[in-house]
């Protein structure tokens, strides 16, 4: 069975959203049913946060839907309520997903009174959980392959969005796990893994060699770019590096093998031999 890279979820501290939101609502909105309704909604939001972040999540689409529902609620309330140190002050504390701590100190964490920070961390967990759900799929079935590719593509998009927005959203240096360099690399890895699943399906469906060569070439490029981005930076777990290097070589070997088949069909025997030599070279490097 193929090995795929998954991402650890970030951990957070418990937060009571209902109390500060209700206080702001009572000070801002007139009394009566409208005020009570807004307070009930604030209490539901606090319960949703606990459900999405306050427990271990199963590697299942239902858990991802809970996370996404909380993320959507944050996006909805952000323009309506002034979350800041001077108004609705709620401090969100999150640990670095990849930092295991040290013998003499705890793991790296960052606490900010910023709803944008909460959104970024929740979206990170959406991408991380999607990567875990994808890795659990049965790649022996068409449904499993389609689901795995879908979740890897979702994870890639989530990490890419964080890369594009994190610095402008926080206006300060984030923890390493949500830094642009790290999430950019994670996005590439997820894209590569989605492409690898497409390759596995194409092989299983006995598609044309030209299609398989194109898919594997793209996967090799993604894995190669991800490896280049992280090999000189101490951001991802060390065990990721050799796997990325091996995946790059395997995908490139498959690409050159299928290109050699095409060359043979076109009676380009010199190219066929050259492609096979390159394929054997990459298989030897993995």
From TrEMBL:
Residues 3-286 form the BRO1 domain. It comes from the Eukaryota. The lineage of its organism: Eukaryota, Metazoa, Chordata, Craniata, Vertebrata. Its main location: other. One of its GO terms (biological process) is mitotic cytokinesis. InterPro entries: BRO1_dom, BRO1_sf. Gene3D superfamilies: alix/aip1 like domains. It comes from Thamnophis sirtalis. PROSITE patterns: BRO1 (PS51180). This is Programmed cell death 6-interacting protein. CDD domains: BRO1_Alix. One of its GO terms (cellular component) is endosome. It is found in: Midbody, Midbody ring.
């Amino acid at each position: 069975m193929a090995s795929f890279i998954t991402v650890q979820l970030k951990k957070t501290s418990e937060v009571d959203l209902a109390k500060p939101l209700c206080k702001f609502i009572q000070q801002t909105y007139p009394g009566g049913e409208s005020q009570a309704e807004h307070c009930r909604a604030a209490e539901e939001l606090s319960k949703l946060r606990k459900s999405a972040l306050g427990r271990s999540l199963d590697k299942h689409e239902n858990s991802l839907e809970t996370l996404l529902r909380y993320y959507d609620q944050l996006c909805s309330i952000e323009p309506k309520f002034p979350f800041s140190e001077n108004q609705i002050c709620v401090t969100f504390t999150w640990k670095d997903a990849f930092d295991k701590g040290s013998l003499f100190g705890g793991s790296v964490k960052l606490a900010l009174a910023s709803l944008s920070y909460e959104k970024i961390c929740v979206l990170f967990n959406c991408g991380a959980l999607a990567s875990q759900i994808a890795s659990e799929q049965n790649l022996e079935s068409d449904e499993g392959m389609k689901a795995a590719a879908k979740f890897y593509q979702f994870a890639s998009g989530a990490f890419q969005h964080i890369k594009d927005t994190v610095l402008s959203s926080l206006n300060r240096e984030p923890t390493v796990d949500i830094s642009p360099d790290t999430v950019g690399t994670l996005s590439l890895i997820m894209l590569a893994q989605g492409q690898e699943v497409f390759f596995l399906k194409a092989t299983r469906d006995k598609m044309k060699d030209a299609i398989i060569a194109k898919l594997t070439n793209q996967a090799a490029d993604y894995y190669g770019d991800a490896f280049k981005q992280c090999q000189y930076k101490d951001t991802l777990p060390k065990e990721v590096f050799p796997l990325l290097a091996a995946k790059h070589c395997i995908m490139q070997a498959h690409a050159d093998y299928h290109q050699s088949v095409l060359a043979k069909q076109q009676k380009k025997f010199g190219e066929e031999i050259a492609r096979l030599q390159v394929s054997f070279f990459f298989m030897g490097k993995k």
